[in-house]
Amino acid sequence: MAIRLGEAARLELVPDQLIAYREASYRQRTSVTLRPTSSLVMAEVVTPGWSPDGAAFRYEEVRLRNGIHVETDEGSELLALDNLLIRPPSGDVTGLGFMEGFSHLGSMIVVDPRVDQALADDLHRLTSENDALTGISLTRTVGGTTGLVLRALSNSTGELNLLLGACIALLRKRWYGQEPLNLRKH
């Protein structure tokens, strides 16, 4: 998927959770080019997949690659390259050093000129109220805009959806005075 955001454009990309079926090999490549005044929020939840026998991580591979470029009058420059590769046949993905005993992974990428350490600290405080294990990092600044990457590990799709929803709600309220997203599917 290729996305281009113009001046002062805003995109909130919050798809349903990713459920890879048994023996699936899923690859998602997202390329985002945005202007320094653009605002991007991307969230993703990856589950342990689905198999007829109910076993987790029966898929071959899930590969998510997000490349984000900032386009200024001087040209385009890479802000962030985010790669996530889960290959269950290669070893125990739930073990130490990878999923740390958890089964679900949540991710959020935010790029906006208002991203700063204070926002990262506020999101850290918000996520610390949750049972998920979370981490937040800032990217470098390109053309006056900065990125933020949040990763969360949990054993529940619902918990990660609530956590990411709360983070997005904080951004919507702070930056636009808007209410939380309502993504009911009934």
Automatic annotation (TrEMBL):
GO terms for molecular function: nickel cation binding. It holds the Pfam family UreD. Keywords: Chaperone. InterPro entries: UreD (IPR002669). Transmembrane segments: none annotated. Belongs to the UreD family. This is UreD urease accessory family protein. It comes from Pseudarthrobacter siccitolerans. The gene is ureD.
